[in-house]
Amino acid sequence: MKVFVDENIPLMTVAALRSLGHDVHDIRGTIDKGMRDDALWEMAQREERLLITTDRGFTHYRMRPHHGVLVIQLRQPNRRKIHARIMQALRQFSDREWPGLLVVMRDVAQSVWHVQERG
User: Among 15, 24, 36, 92, which has the minimal tally of Cβ within 10 Å of its Cβ?
Assistant: First the structure.
């Protein structure tokens, strides 16, 4: 699966995703580091990637067509907790389920939205 990780996602998660065979675009250490959310969104969509972030502002895109969004929203986040919730979500939903799916993983609960195709 093609994945785009925001710069707030732990490096251990990037390594784990790559070891599972995912094509991961990590903007850390590039000229794109610190880009605005709308530019990050456009890049992820242009590259047809699942966007993984801790920025809940991306939930505003839930009704727009997209290639998947996973938002990790924890009360007291740390690298291990963020990593664990990301890996849980990726086990819970298959690669083919992610297009149009927005998942917000909280400490215990989760919210899921799926963009309905209009025809």
Answer: 36
Residues 6+ apart with CB under 8 A from 25: 2, 3, 4, 5, 44, 47, 49
Q: Which residues pair with 101 in a beta bridge?
A: 114
Residue 30 binned pLDDT confidence (cut-offs 50, 70, 90): confident
Cα–Cα distance, 111 to 8 (Å, whole number): 20
Q: Could you state, in order of their start, the residue ranges of all structural domains in the chain? A: 2-114
Bridge-based pairing of strands 50-53 and 2-5 is: parallel
Return the number of other C-beta atoms located less than 10 Å from residue 68's C-beta.
24
Cα dist from 17 to 36, 94, 113, whole Å: 24, 14, 23
pLDDT at 11 over 70: yes
C-beta of residue 72 within 8 angstroms of C-beta of residue 91: no
- What is the average pLDDT value for the chain, to the nearest integer? 93
Phi, psi of 102 (to 5 degrees): -120, 125
